Amino acid sequence: MAVIGAGPIGIEMAIALKKTNVDAVLFEAKQIGHAISSWPANSHFYSPLERVALAGVPVHNRDQMSVTGEEYLDYLRMLVEQFDLRLHNYEPVVAIERDGVGFLLHTRPSKSQRA
After folding, report:
1. Residue 81, burial from CB neighbour count under 10 angstroms (0-12, 13-18, 19+)
2. Which end of the chain is less crowded, N or C, counting CB atoms within 10 A of the terminal residue's CB?
């Protein structure tokens, strides 16, 4: 099974699959939570912590108020490690085709992953 995109939804999906003993690989074209990483420094979520928590794991920060983008990226990385997700960073999926039984993914690993 493959999950494309290591943002909040992709990470939560990969965790849900792992909890049901489905072997999954998480593919991300850039870094974990890439869209969030482009936010201005110290930008805060408007949602309360319980709304941005994933997989039943609470989000913690110093003041237990709204979380910054940087804090949330740390949280996403922690989830990937905590649940030992199979992550292929910097490996975009460039094509998907039917192969009769399911689908075949074509990826383009970065040069550092090929080495």
Report:
1. exposed
2. C
Angle at 77 between CA 103 and CA 70, to 5 degrees: 125
Q: How many helices (H) and strands (E) does the chain have?
A: 5, 5
Q: How many CB atoms lie within 10 A of CB 87?
A: 19
The whole-number pLDDT of residue 44 equals 85
d(CA 100, CA 80): 32
- Residue spans of the domains in the chain: they are 2-114
Question: E strand or H helix at 9, and its extent?
Answer: helix 8-19
- CA–CA separation, 115 and 110 (whole Å): 9
Query: Would the pTM of this model clear 0.90, i.e. be above it?
Result: no
